[in-house]
Amino acid sequence: MKLKELKIKNFRGYKDEVCIEFKDLTVFVGQNDIGKSTVLEALDI
Q1: Is the CA virtual torsion 3, 9, 15, 19 positive or negative?
Q2: Domain residues of the chain, as ranges?
Q3: C-alpha dihedral over 36, 8, 4, 28, to 10 degrees?
Q4: Each residue's pLDDT expressed in tens, for the chain with a length of 45 residues
Q5: 8, exposed or middle or buried, with CB in 10 Å at 0-12, 13-18, 19+?
Q6: What is the value of pTM for the model shown?
Q7: Contact (CB, 8 A) for 20 and 4
Q8: Which of 39, 40, 32 is nearest to 14 (CA)?
Q9: How many other C-beta atoms are found inside a 10 Å radius of the C-beta of residue 31?
């Protein structure tokens, strides 16, 4: 199974709808407390 996109709305720090598109290789990089772990929790990983 290949994940193409993820839409998050009203989940933890994401109040408005956010759409994240995944390409062949996707890397989450950023400062602390920016939402990287929240995206993984939305996927239930």
Answers
A1: positive
A2: 5-42
A3: -10
A4: 788 999 999 998 899 999 999 988 888 889 998 888 988 888 886
A5: buried
A6: 0.65
A7: no
A8: 39
A9: 6
The span from the CA of 14 to the CA of 6, in Å, is 12
Is 19 within 8 Å of 7 (Cβ atoms)?
A: yes
Q: What are the φ and ψ backbone dihedral angles of 38, each rounded to 5 degrees?
A: -65, -40
CA distances from 38 to 1, 6 (A): 21, 12
Alpha-carbon distances of 15 from 11, 12, 18, 22, 43, rounded to whole Å: 6, 7, 9, 21, 17
